[in-house]
Write a structure and sequence with these properties.
Radius of gyration: 19 Å
Oligomer: single chain
Strand order of the largest sheet: 1-8-7-6-5-4-3-2
Number of helices: 14
Order of helices and strands: HEHEHHEHEHHEHEHEHEHHHH
Structural class: alpha/beta
Strand content: 5-15%
Number of strands: 8
Largest sheet: 8 strands, parallel
Shape: globular
Length: 325
């Protein structure tokens, strides 16, 4: 397992290069074990996140196995952080203990997910409305995590900008890092990210010893470097930019410079790995959301996409890809 000081080591290394450290955003049915391994192989970021898992689910033996499938990881992904969500401090404490025993490098609490069902539980972005409970959840998670560092991913507010009060509340609990998505829960993704408010967040956190990570509308590492320099954040988290582009964090390879054959080979490798790791646990339909992103922008892409959207197995994908290699 990596030294728990990996946050400090990565931050120092990035600072010496005059750039932020980069993180892979946790996204349901996207950053699953299969795609994370592909990303780790072709363009590994400084830190990787799992999909988020429910603390309430993790503490029930009957349901626990359903969530553990999302927490499978390989050594190549380190440092790897497991993300959780919940509003019951005791369940968060117990889940953190389980995750520490699984050998993760860190644990992150999602306090920004806009999903209605999760918000109804008082979790995700819903917990922004109850800052006292949010602090209890962080402290309980830290207790269960032991030496494992605990971080938080959140938004600038629930219905309005609350950075001036919400961020200081979080800083009181001294998580190792806070990722700020620059929109409120109400705004979802309907408006551009408020990077000016993320900048204000970095100012508020200055001197606290807590790393601040900016998140929202960053398409690539070049844009991430510019955003970090403008806002003063320590790190940049990229989410949607990773769709169909496992080379995103690779400083030596750009997807646009690769031949179609190479892109299709990696897409097939991804499909095969998905089946190996998640077959029987997740529907192959999940893979279809990746296909369009992999193959966009070349002659004949539409026809290929239509064919791929009918696939039900990695073998189906292989049969189609062979025609283009």
């Amino acid at each position: 397992m990596e030294n728990y000081n990996f946050w400090t080591k990565i931050a120092k290394s990035s600072k010496s290069d005059n750039k932020p450290f980069f993180c892979l955003a946790p996204m349901a049915d996207v950053t699953d074990p299969a795609y994370r391994r592909i990303i780790a192989k072709y363009g590994k970021p400084d830190i990787m996140w799992t999909e988020m898992v429910s603390c309430d689910g993790m503490v029930h033996e009957e349901a626990k196995h359903k969530f553990l499938k999302d927490l499978v990881y390989s050594e190549e992904e380190r440092p790897i952080i497991a993300q959780i969500f919940g509003s019951n401090p005791d369940n968060c404490r117990k889940t953190a203990k389980i995750i520490s025993e699984l050998g993760f490098d860190g644990i992150d609490i999602n306090m920004g997910c806009p999903d209605k069902n999760i918000n109804k539980q008082g979790a995700g972005a819903g917990i922004i409305r109850t800052p006292t409970l949010a602090k209890e959840v962080i402290l309980a998670t830290k207790e269960g995590a032991g030496k494992m560092p605990v971080s938080v991913k959140t938004r600038i507010g629930y219905s309005k900008n609350e950075i001036e009060t919400w961020l200081p509340d979080l800083l009181e609990t001294k998580p190792v890092a806070i990722t700020i998505h620059g929109r409120t829960r109400k705004e979802m993704s309907k408006v551009p990210t408020h990077w000016d408010i993320i900048k204000r967040g970095a100012e508020i956190a200055q001197g606290s010893g807590v790393f601040v990570i900016g998140n929202g509308d960053v398409k690539n590492t070049e844009e991430g470097i510019n955003r970090a320099q403008e806002s003063g954040v320590d790190g940049i988290m990229i989410g949607r930019g990773i769709f169909g582009n496992p080379w995103l964090f690779n400083n030596k390879i750009k997807k646009e410079d690769l031949p179609l054959s190479e892109i299709l080979k990696v897409m097939l490798e991804h499909s095969t790995l998905f089946e190996e790791l998640l077959g029987g646990k997740k529907s192959f339909l999940v893979m279809r959301k990746h296909f369009g992103s992999y193959i966009g922008g070349f002659p004949g892409a539409r026809e290929l996409r239509i064919k791929l959207m009918k696939t039900e197995s990695a073998k189906d994908v292989e049969n189609i890809v062979k025609q283009y290699l």
